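Reopening this ticket.

The earlier resolution said the output was attached, but the attachment link was broken on my side. Pasting everything inline this time so it's all in one place.
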Amino acid sequence: MQPFTTLTGTAAPLLRANVDTDLIIPKQYLKTLVRTGLGQHLFAEIRYDDAGAEKPDFVLNRPLYRAANILLGGPNFGCGSSREHAPWALLDFGIRCVIAPSYADIFYNNCFSNGILPLVLPLETVEAIAAAGNPVTVDLPAQTVTAGGVTHRFDIEPGRKTTLVEGLDEIGKSLANLAAIEAFEAKRGRETPWL
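Inline output:
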């Protein structure tokens, strides 16, 4: 997983409440078990018309936001089913950070597991960041978001922060304890050789 320290880029405002995982990546694109190729289908039902042409008024189709790496969302972002394809699609598009007032629990956890920083800030702050324009800088070690010369602090659980800063996925977190695991296995083998 790619480490996350400081991210400066374009924040695309999608300030809708209850953006569910089926809207993020519709069910017909869940046939894959790989994490790549899903970005083209991100928000497909509201990003493209019935003929597959881009809707020019959708935020990610506007020239300013085509290369957005930060997404500004509304309350209860990522609600709905527990599909891990939703953060995969965001990441494949290039989104490394979502800033919203609240998240569905499973989506929130899946973001951390996939290298996306889901920041929680009050709706008024998210709206202020959107109004301030770009660029936006997210500094995870300092726990700040800066837009339009105004800096906002955010809270994050220390273990999750470390995981992102060090770029550790679930396997990486286990391997960080490899010496202790091997010592335990060796001791267990001596104490219970019949196992």
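Reporter confirms the inline version is readable. The domain at 6-191 is CATH 3.20.19.10 (Aconitase; domain 4). The longest strand covers residues 6-9.
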